[in-house]
Amino acid sequence: MPQILALNGSLRAASANHRVLEYLRAASKPPLTIVPGPALDALPHFNPDLDIDPAPAAVATLRAQIANADALLICTPEYTFSIPGSLKNALDWLVSSGSLYEKPVAIVATSTSRGLKVLAALADVLAAHQARIAIQTALHPAEARTHLTGDAAPHSATGRALAAVLAALGA
Ligand SMILES: Cc1cc2nc3c(=O)[nH]c(=O)nc-3n(C[C@H](O)[C@H](O)[C@H](O)COP(=O)(O)O)c2cc1C
Asked: Ligand 1: which residue has its CA nearest to atom 2?
């Protein structure tokens, strides 16, 4: 049963990316399951001196969750043309463990400018991890707010874009 671990690059309570992630969770069909990962502020700031055995508890948990997952789903905003610090911090904790090596990763960037720069930045970082980008999609927060509610949602352009994400993840 394919299990997908989902990470949200936004810590905001009213996060549009959280809304997208929850839509994908609700729209995913068995045998695919999308499991939310930890809030990324649970991780300590990355410090190579702390990247030893045993790893900090929150880091060890994240690494184990990724090891158990068939793929990763990253929903994230773009911050200052790049990757939000909390998400980059999490990715840095996954270098020494090789957690993302050949791991399929789907990325949905929901951002005011549609997040094309964060997609490019993530592509570079994930290449360094030797992860495999399964699909990447960019949305505007207004689309997450208005297109992802109600019965028509799956038939909207946004819903169709997210259906393609699920398909790429094996739904
Ligand atoms: C510090 C900061 C920097 C931002 N920089 C960008 C940016 O470079 N490009 C962009 O499209 N949006 C940028 N935004 C706007 C976010 O994309 C937008 O607020 C988005 O909805 C945040 O995602 P969330 O709703 O999941 O928190 C920035 C927002 C913040 C708070």
From this structure: 79
